[in-house]
Write a structure and sequence with these properties.
- The chain contains eleven helices and 14 strands.
- The protein has helices at residues 45-52, 74-80, 96-106, 111-124, 140-152, 170-182, 197-203, 221-228, 242-250, 273-285, 299-311, and strands at 7-16, 19-29, 34-38, 60-65, 68-69, 81-84, 158-162, 189-194, 206-211, 214-219, 232-239, 255-261, 264-269, 289-296.
- The mean pLDDT is 86.
């Protein structure tokens, strides 16, 4: 029996006077998954997250978070969510430990659970060594991880993260990404927005692409690419006869435009993960020694294809 989705959104509309920020947005997020909310600045991502966080009301539409009705039971929704806005303030004159203690008390966490909960969260976000440091002394990346720990202090089911990697250096992004990957293992569902497409490609189970306030696609990257008929590029490096590898690939569904250069076989490919697995299996069964196998192209190409289609370019 399928579990109820963690988030269900139906026909969400938000208007500001004559401007429509969200135009009939619908999607659902499976429990225990990471759902990447993709779109350029101004697409409506932050508006949608603020509505789900009960910080503003929609003009039209309904939504449920962890089974709680966004409009009918906003207090229940708040108990189930941890919200991290794109810009959030910190109390610079508090230490890291005091900062989390404050939010533990604000969220009604029993005092006898504070120490254990905070220690566990600092270990999760790798800030245990900074527990006595003042928040103002932390780097931006550390503040982002501390903000994530704050979202988790009351053990919510669903996390709403708005551009958490914005402004971070490459090392800080890698550190944050590792924390995000751990959250589904803890039973958390994550809805994360970003305009940095490769960041979401690395962590997301599914994606939703917003453009001009409308949801133009939702699903796994492979599902959407198959629906659109957009192609990736298979890059296969082999030992020995690359021409033989090319002949094997040419006979497979979804493969076209095969080229060979210096042991590297490149081909356009419109299939999904099953097709990739079938291609690799066919090469191995043909006795070809595969050194590397990669399907290049992903969210960036998909996003460009969808937004060009929407704008008619």
């Amino acid at each position: 029996m399928a579990r109820e989705p963690a988030i269900v959104v139906e026909g969400l509309v938000k208007r500001y006077g004559r401007f429509t920020a969200l135009d009939g947005v619908s999607f659902s997020v499976e429990r225990g998954s990471i759902y990447g909310f993709i779109g350029p600045n101004g697409a409506g991502k932050t508006t949608a997250l603020r509505i789900l966080a009960t910080l503003m009301l929609p003009t039209e539409g309904r939504a449920w978070v962890a089974g709680a009705d966004l409009l009918g039971s906003p207090r229940d929704v708040r108990r189930h969510i941890g919200y991290m806005p794109d810009f959030f303030g910190v109390y610079d004159d508090l230490t890291v430990w005091e900062y989390l203690e404050f939010y533990a008390q604000a969220n009604g966490l029993p005092r006898d659970r504070w120490r254990r909960t905070i220690a566990d969260l600092l270990e999760l976000v790798d800030l245990g060594a900074k527990r006595g440091d003042y928040v103002e002394a932390l780097s931006r990346g550390m503040k982002q991880r501390l903000g994530l720990a704050r979202c988790l202090v009351h053990d919510p089911d669903v996390l709403l993260l708005d551009e958490p990697a914005s402004g971070l250096d490459p090392r800080a992004r890698v550190e944050l990404r590792e924390v995000l990957r751990e959250l589904p293992r803890m039973g958390k569902t994550v809805l994360i927005s970003s305009h940095i497409l490769p960041e979401l490609a690395d962590v997301s189970t599914q994606v939703g692409i917003l453009h001009g306030g409308r949801m133009v696609a939702s699903g796994s990257v492979d599902e959407i690419q198959v629906q659109l008929g957009t192609s990736r590029v298979l890059e296969v490096r082999v030992l020995g006869d690359a021409e033989n590898a090319a002949r094997v690939l040419e006979g497979l569904p979804g493969v076209g435009g095969v080229d060979v250069a210096e042991g590297l076989v490149r081909a356009s490919f419109t299939g999904g993960l099953d097709g990739q697995a079938a291609a690799l299996r066919a090469l191995v069964e043909a006795g070809i020694e595969v050194v590397s196998f990669n399907a290049a192209g992903g969210l960036e190409e998909l996003f460009m294809a969808l937004t060009e289609e929407e704008t008619g370019e």
